[in-house]
Design brief:
By secondary structure, the chain is an alpha+beta fold. The chain folds into three domains: 14-68 and 106-272, Rossmann fold (3-Layer(aba) Sandwich), CATH 3.40.50; 279-377, Translation factors (Elongation Factor Tu (Ef-tu), domain 3); 395-531, Alpha-Beta Plaits (2-Layer Sandwich). Helices cover 26% and strands 31% of the residues. The chain contains 14 helices and 31 strands. The strands form six sheets. Strands 18-17-23-14-15-22-19-20 form an eight-stranded antiparallel β-sheet. Strands 27-24-26-25-29-30-28-31 form an eight-stranded antiparallel β-sheet. It is globular, with a radius of gyration of 25 Å.
Length: 532
């Protein structure tokens, strides 16, 4: 048992979140470089002859230079086993990011030094706060002209409502970026330029070193001394317990693109971040060090290997040890089974694993039995983890196959992509699957859906925009059939593929109108079944 304990204690599972273009994918790749998982980083927005980012495995990601799906990456570094969950930065894919954060024990928030806190950062941060996830902040792109670091710290505290503790402090920015002062070690890591290459230079231990003014420049030297005096006098002591509660964010400055400050950040982060955390379930808190294996499904991805037309289900192990041949219970299906082809993932590359521990992410081959939020556990101790709520879509399109002979591929593709949680599909009562209504949280998901249907299922689509912006599940009604409800002409009755009835509305006024004219009608923004 002590071996299992030590394996679990060395696990670190975290998500990287940011607004688009803050440098999240670049930072992820530098982590992988330090861990020896890759030999050379890809260029996220390179030209056609350049490499794409290793964490962006889907063809559309390589073409557009954005992440549209969460990647799972595992590597070893200084006796830590690290699971990185690289999330989409684009707001249209925030639902995928939300689900991924459910599988993380902590989060790294990447902020652009010249732009500060941006919209998507605020949204993702709120999810972290909701779950009390420890948040570590990396202020990136210090090699470019940046905002005043005090202003950046104030903005994080004021807009996100979290206290901060700068672990290091920048000396200049852009062409004048000279390095950082490490507040724990009380030394300076200098930043040297060598043509296009940048690297961390020698450490200068003491602020009173007589050669320091010459190395940094007199103005930078004076500013640094004043800044450190102000920080040391004004900031509270570092409190690791507050970090673990998600109340205090350690802040680091650096430049992921030029490799500066990434390794010191990674080392400090691994020391400060907690090992796998307990999870809430129907039977109370589940301890990661419990002997009994348990996990939950947070992501499903079809066609990661296009040649094999496979479907992979990603599980976060929450307690105990997983063995390849062990029998487990799929709680929602109430069925004992062995997980098929358990794998650990490096973007689209896979490796069959014989064992894994609490904190790890494994992918298993899924013939279509798992759903997001499902629990898998030891048959000895049956329970369910808290469900993962489904976001209400805000954009809708009517979709059908251009070639009616491809109905079978159309149905399969729409259902598989919907099961991943990227889209939601509905149909009008008494209508089959000749056409479906697709609902998404962000409009870019329509592009991804259309691209994947063509690329993975060889189905061209005919698409018609619909004027609806709101969807509500019908919880209760005072009539025997939804068609007997009194609703406005621009409200549509639809069903999801579990048979639940819903209403599509074009405005909030229509929602109020329906509620006022139908006594006993109860509507909700979430499917209660999804929330468990």
């Amino acid at each position: 048992m002590s071996d299992i304990n030590s394996e679990i204690k060395r696990r670190r599972t975290f998500a990287i979140i940011s607004h688009p273009d803050a440098g999240k994918t670049t930072l992820t790749e530098k982590f992988l470089l330090y861990g020896g998982a890759i030999q050379q980083a890809g260029m996220v927005k390179g030209k056609k002859n350049m490499r794409h980012a290793v964490s962006d495995w889907m063809e559309i990601e390589k073409q557009r230079g954005i992440s549209v799906t969460s990647s799972v990456l595992q590597f070893e570094y200084e006796n830590f086993c690290i699971n990185i969950l690289d999330t989409p930065g684009h707001q249209d894919f925030s639902e995928d990011t939300y689900r991924t954060l459910m599988a993380a024990d902590s989060a790294v928030m990447v902020i652009d030094a010249s732009k500060g806190v941006e919209n998507q950062t605020r949204k993702l941060f709120k999810v972290c706060v909701m779950r009390h996830i420890p948040i570590f902040t990396f202020i990136n792109k210090m090699d470019r002209d940046s905002r005043n670091p005090f202003d950046l710290i104030d903005q994080i505290e004021n807009e996100l409502g979290i206290s901060t503790y700068p672990v290091n402090w920048p000396i200049g920015s852009g062409k004048e970026f000279k390095g950082v002062f490490d507040r724990f070690e009380r030394h300076i890591i200098s930043f040297e330029s060598n043509g296009a290459a940048h690297q961390a230079g020698a450490k200068i231990s003491d602020l009173t070193d007589p050669s320091l003014a010459e190395t940094l420049g007199e103005e930078n030297h004076n500013t640094l001394i004043e800044d450190i005096e102000l920080l040391d006098g004004a900031s509270d002591d570092f409190d690791l317990d507050a970090v673990h509660k998600g109340e205090l964010s350690p802040v680091f400055f650096g430049s992921a693109l030029t490799n500066f400050g990434v390794e010191p950040f990674l080392e400090s982060f691994l020391k400060m971040t907690p090992p796998p955390m307990p999870r809430m379930s129907s039977e109370g808190e589940v301890d990661p060090f419990d002997d009994n294996f348990s996990a939950f499904v947070f992501k499903i991805q079809a066609n990661m290997n296009k040649a094999h037309r496979d479907r992979l289900t990603f599980m976060r192990i929450c307690s105990g040890k997983f063995d390849k041949d062990m029998e487990v219970l799929h709680v929602q299906g109430n069925k004992k089974m062995r997980l098929s082809q358990p794998q650990q993932i490096m973007a689209e590359q896979r490796e069959i694993v014989n064992e894994a521990y609490a904190g790890d992410i494994i992918g298993v081959f899924d013939p279509g039995i798992f759903s997001i939020g499902d629990t898998v556990c030891s048959p000895k101790k049956k329970f369910e983890f808290e469900g993962i709520p489904t976001f209400a879509p805000e954009h809708f399109q009517r979709v059908r196959p251009k070639d009616t002979m491809k109905r079978k591929q159309f149905v399969k593709g729409a259902e598989q992509i919907a099961q991943e949680g990227a889209i939601q599909i509905f149909h009008e009562p008494m209508m089959g699957m000749e056409e479906v209504i697709v609902g998404v949280v962000g409009v870019l998901q329509f592009d991804v859906f259309q691209y994947r249907m063509k690329n993975e299922y060889n189905v061209d689509l005919v698409i018609e925009g619909l004027p609806y912006s709101y969807i509500r599940w019908i919880d209760k009604m005072n009539v025997s059939e939804p068609k007997d409800l009194k609703i406005s002409s621009d409200t549509k009755i639809v069903q999801d593929f579990r048979g639940n009835y819903l209403l599509l509305f074009s405005s909030e006024w229509n929602i109020r109108w329906a509620l006022e004219r139908n006594e006993g009608l109860e509507l909700s923004e979430f499917n209660r079944g999804e929330l468990q």
